[in-house]
Amino acid sequence: MGTWHDGTALLEIIVPAHNEADRLPAGLHLLCAKLAGLPLRAEIIVVDNASTDGTAGIVRSWGGPVPVRLVHCERRGKGAAVRAGLLETRAPYVGFMDADMATDLAALDEAIALLSEGRPVVVGSRRHRRSVVQGYALPVRRLGAITFNRIVRDLVGGIQDTQCGFKFFDGPLGRAAAGELRTAGFSFDVELLAHCVRRGASVTAIPVVWRDRPGSTFSVTRHSLECMLDLARIRARAGFRVPATPITPVVPVRTMLREPRPVPVALPERAPSAKSG
C-alpha cells in the first residue's frame, strides 16, 4: 500500500456534515469500505458544521479500517465547512464529497488515477455525456442548476456542472484555494474552482452515477437568492484580483499505485438517465 514520504496518507477526503446523524453512518460505511480497498493510504475528515444532533459523537466513536478524524467548524455553511476541512489536510491529494454519498464511489478510481497523472483538479459532472443521473427531483431545481452553471462557466474553466459534491485537487493547490475562499454558502464551489483556474489549473470533468438522496439541506426557495448574491460577490472579487502565483503541483506518484490506468465509472446498462445541472 503506497504512502507519502513520512508514512502519512496520500489522500484525504473531507465530508462536511451539518446535523447528519441520520445519514452519516451509512455514508461512512460506504466510503470506508471503498477506501480500504484502494492501493493507497487514505483518511477521512468529517467536519461537524455547527451540528445540534449526534453528528460529532458518531465520528468520535467510529471504528474501522480507515482513519476518520473530526474537525469542528462553528461558522454555518457548507463552504465554511469544506474550507475548514481542506485547511486541516496535509496529503498530496485532497477532495470532498457529500455525507449522503449521492455520487457513486466508483468514480473515485478514475479521479485518483487522473490526480496521480498530474491533473490538478478533477470534478464529477452530472452533465457529462456518460453520466447517469437518477431521481433529480424538482424540474425547477434542474432548470435553476443549468442556468446557474451557464452564468459561471467562464470563471471555472468551462465545466458544465459546478455543484456536484465530488471534487478532488492537487493538495497544495486545494489548500491555497481554500485559504482564499470567502463564500460560506452553497455557491462556494464556484469560488473554490475560480481560485484554482486563476492559478492556471485545468479542471477535468469525469462522468458519475448520481442518485438523488432525501434529506438535502439545499432549498430552492430559501437559498436561491443567497446563491445569486454570492455569485455577484464572487464576480466582483474576481474582477479586482491580479493573477495568483501558480502552485507547483505534487510530483505524480503513479508508480506507487498498483492500478496504473484510470478505471471508468461502472454504468448500469439500463438505468434511467436525465441530464442535470
Number of helices: 8
What's the CATH C level?
A: Alpha Beta
State the end-to-end distance.
Answer: 37 Å
Annotated CATH architecture: Alpha-Beta Complex
**What is the H/E order?**
EHEHEHEHEEHEHHEEH
What would the principal axes of the Cα set say about the shape? globular
In percent terms, what proportion of residues is strand?
15-25%
Q: How many strands, which pairing sense, and closed or not: the largest β-sheet?
A: 7 strands, mixed
Percent of residues in helices comes to 25-40%
Rg from Cα: 18 Å
Residue runs with pLDDT of under 50 for 5 or more positions: 1-5, 255-277
Number of strands: 9
Total count of domains? 1
User: Order of strands across the biggest sheet?
Assistant: 3-2-1-4-7-5-8
- Whole-number mean pLDDT: 83
Structural class: alpha/beta
CATH topology: Spore Coat Polysaccharide Biosynthesis Protein SpsA, Chain A
In CATH, what is the homologous superfamily? Answer: Spore Coat Polysaccharide Biosynthesis Protein SpsA, Chain A
